[in-house]
Amino acid sequence: MPVSAGQDHNVVTVLHGGEHPPGLGSKAGDTHLRFASTENELAEALPGSDVLLTWDFTSDAVKQVWSSDLTRELRWVHTASAGVDRVAFPELLAAPVTLTNSRGVFDRPMAEFVLGAVIAFAKDTARSLTLQREHLWQHRETETVAGKVVTVVGSGPIGHAIAGLLTAVGMTVRLVGRRAADGVHAFDELPGLLPDSDYLVLAAPLTDATRGMVHTGTIALLPERARVINVGRGPLIVQDDLTEALRGGRLAGAALDVFEVEPLPADSPLWAMENVLISPHMSGDVVGWKDMLVELFVDNLVRYRDGDELRNVVDKERGYVSTSGGNQ
Known about the structure:
By secondary structure, the chain is of the alpha/beta class. It folds into two domains: 11-105 and 287-321, Rossmann fold; 107-278, 3-Layer(aba) Sandwich (Rossmann fold). Helices cover 29% and strands 16% of the residues. The protein has eleven helices and 14 strands. The protein has helices at 24-27, 39-45, 61-65, 90-94, 107-122, 125-133, 157-168, 190-193, 216-221, 239-247, 289-306, and strands spanning 11-15, 32-36, 51-54, 76-79, 98-100, 149-153, 172-177, 184-186, 199-202, 227-230, 253-256, 276-278, 314-315, 320-321. It has a seven-stranded parallel beta sheet, covered by helices on one side. A five-stranded parallel beta sheet has the order 2-1-3-4-5, with helices on one face. The longest helix has 18 residues, at 289-306. It is elongated, with a radius of gyration of 21 Å.
């Protein structure tokens, strides 16, 4: 069923975390915008709001202040992220509100990030940079990416974009989703795909089924030459298990954009590992990404006012958008 604004309701509360969405005020028309950056401000702004935009998708403020008294008139919650784990808490999931995400904005940038990590590992880029800083000329042989086998967990738009780019450079890609479909392996087939995987790429949503999916047992199925790339969510990996495997030479390397705790603590041993590439949760953040997020939200806001179907409606039981783009 479409969700739409009532006659007297056109109030959007924006949880912004200190940085307002660029251009939202001019693009939202006659919408009344309320801005909040803290839990207290959010609690004050929510009563009477029918829409909540969680621009600061790293904040737990929505969960902390949620109550039926504050959210009685709320009809729609939108998060400026692809993942919804910050807002998919039981009280919101049980409430009669529609939840949407920003699926589609990050697909190509994240795919390029993964391709870049693969190339960096194959061409030993980190070592070259170290030798350059030391003014050392050290000839080495590197790997080719063509013919390497990649298992990508997450068969939504991001996973498909990753598969497209990696296939284009000659890699053999297997997509893994919640259930089997055309060109997609079911999640329970994953153990059988790991032993010949040169790369394991995680681009899955964080759900009860995927949380902690990479652990000592999973790693034991991978060959020692394998590298793990995580652009999904940090808790997809049991970080201590991965750290130990990397330290002991059980895996060849890892490129990690997300972590169990963010920012990654300064005393984490991952920082000092030469076979680890670390980035601060930025794989999808390219020039103009915030403008694209605003455009998506405003498009949905127009649909909401007109009583049309919203884009990117999250299936609350599955924890991700389950239509228009294949399995996840």
